[in-house]
Write a structure and sequence with these properties.
Arc Repressor Mutant, subunit A, transcription regulation, alpha/beta, transcription, elongated, 12 helices, 7-stranded mixed β-sheet, D-Maltodextrin-Binding Protein, domain 2, DNA-binding
C-alpha cells in the first residue's frame, strides 16, 4: 500500500536550499549572499515553495521576515536532510579515483620538500589529482581535506591508528649560512665544532616548534636553560629564510634543508639527531570508513621518497 506522503511531490531542491538558507541566516539578503544568488532569485524560490505547499512559510515582522510555525518545521527538516545528503554525496565522491585528493601540510614542508617533487609524484601516480593546501603547523585538522601531513609525537606505547601512517622519523639539527659558519669558525670546517660554541649566541626559533632547541641540546649534553633565544618567527619557513641570509643560527628537520645543505647554501656542522616525533599522514575517513581510493598509494610514495632522502650529518 502506498503511503500518503509518497503521493505528495517533493518541491525542487533549489527552492528547498533557498528556504533552508533563509532559515539559517534569518534574512533573504544574507541567504542570497550565501548561495551567490540575487535577493529576487531567493524570494522567487520561497514564493514558489509556498505556492506548491499551499501554506505560508514566512510572514512580515517589522521591516524583516520571520518564519511561521510551518516554516520553522520545514527549515529544520530541510537543514537536517540537506546536510545528510551533502555528507553522503561527499563520501560517495571520495570513492572515485577521479576525485581530487586534498592534502594539507605545513607551509614549510610544502615549499621546501613537496613542491620540488611534484613532477616525480605525477610520474609515479599519474591517475592522482592532488590539491595541496598549506595548513598551520601543529594545528591543521582533517576538516575539508582527505589527509593531513604533520610532525607529531605519538602517544607512548600506543600504536598509530588505522588512519595514521608513519612516514619517517623526525631528525633536527642546527643550520647556518656558510658565510656565518666560516666567520665564526675561522674557516675550520673539517670537523664539527664543540656544540657549546652556541652558548651565548642568539638562536633563531619558531612558535610552531618551541621545544626544538631543547630537544637538540639535551642530546648534546647541554642543559636547555643555558641557551639564549634570539629572534622568534611565526613559521618555520620564515626562520629558514632568516638563516639563509645570515641573521643567526636556525634549527630545522633535515627533510626541509636537505636541498640547501646539498647546494652549500646552509651548513649543518653538528648533523641531525632523531627526536620523539614522526612525520605522519593522517587520512580522513567518512562515517562508513570510506577513504580516497588512492590514499594508501600516496602514503606509500611519500614513505619511499622520505626513505631515499640522504642522511645529512
Amino acid at each position: 500500500m502506498t503511503s500518503h506522503n509518497q503521493d505528495v511531490p517533493l518541491p525542487s531542491l533549489r527552492a528547498l536550499r533557498a528556504f533552508e538558507a533563509l532559515g539559517r541566516h534569518g534574512s533573504v539578503s544574507r541567504a542570497a549572499a550565501s548561495l551567490y544568488l540575487t535577493h529576487g532569485a531567493v524570494s522567487r524560490q520561497i514564493k514558489l515553495l509556498e505556492d506548491q505547499l499551499g501554506v505560508a512559510l514566512v510572514e512580515k515582522e517589522g521591516r524583516g521576515l520571520r518564519l511561521t510555525d510551518a516554516g520553522r518545521e520545514l527549515a529544520d527538516a530541510a537543514g537536517f536532510h540537506l546536510g545528510a545528503l551533502a555528507r553522503v554525496c561527499a563520501e560517495v565522491a571520495r570513492t572515485s579515483v577521479q576525485s581530487p585528493f586534498v592534502l594539507s601540510c605545513p607551509g614549510s614542508f610544502l615549499a621546501r620538500w613537496f613542491i620540488p617533487r611534484l613532477a616525480r609524484l605525477k610520474q609515479a601516480l599519474p591517475q592522482l589529482e592532488l590539491h595541496l593546501t598549506a595548513g598551520e603547523e601543529g594545528v591543521a585538522t582533517l576538516s575539508g581535506v582527505d589527509g593531513v601531513l604533520r610532525f607529531q609525537r605519538l602517544p607512548e606505547g600506543e600504536p598509530p591508528g588505522e588512519v595514521t601512517r608513519i612516514l619517517g622519523q623526525e631528525r633536527i639539527g642546527p643550520v647556518l649560512s656558510r658565510e656565518l659558519e666560516l666567520h665564526r669558525s675561522g674557516g675550520a670546517t673539517a670537523s664539527p665544532p664543540d656544540p657549546r660554541v652556541l652558548l651565548g649566541q642568539a638562536l633563531l626559533h619558531t612558535r610552531s616548534r618551541p621545544s626544538a632547541w631543547g630537544d637538540w641540546s639535551r642530546r648534546q649534553g647541554i642543559a636547555p636553560e643555558r641557551l639564549t633565544m634570539g629572534q622568534g618567527f611565526e613559521h618555520l619557513n620564515y626562520l629558514l629564510e632568516a638563516t639563509l641570509v645570515g641573521l643567526g643560527v636556525g634549527i630545522a628537520p633535515d627533510y626541509l634543508v636537505e636541498e640547501d645543505v646539498r647546494a652549500g647554501r646552509l651548513v649543518a656542522p653538528w648533523g641531525f639527531v632523531a627526536t620523539d616525533a614522526c612525520l605522519v599522514l593522517e587520512l580522513a575517513a567518512g562515517p562508513r570508513g570510506a577513504r580516497h581510493p588512492l590514499a594508501n598509494d600516496l602514503a606509500d610514495w611519500l614513505a619511499a621518497e622520505l626513505a631515499e632522502a640522504p642522511v645529512l650529518g
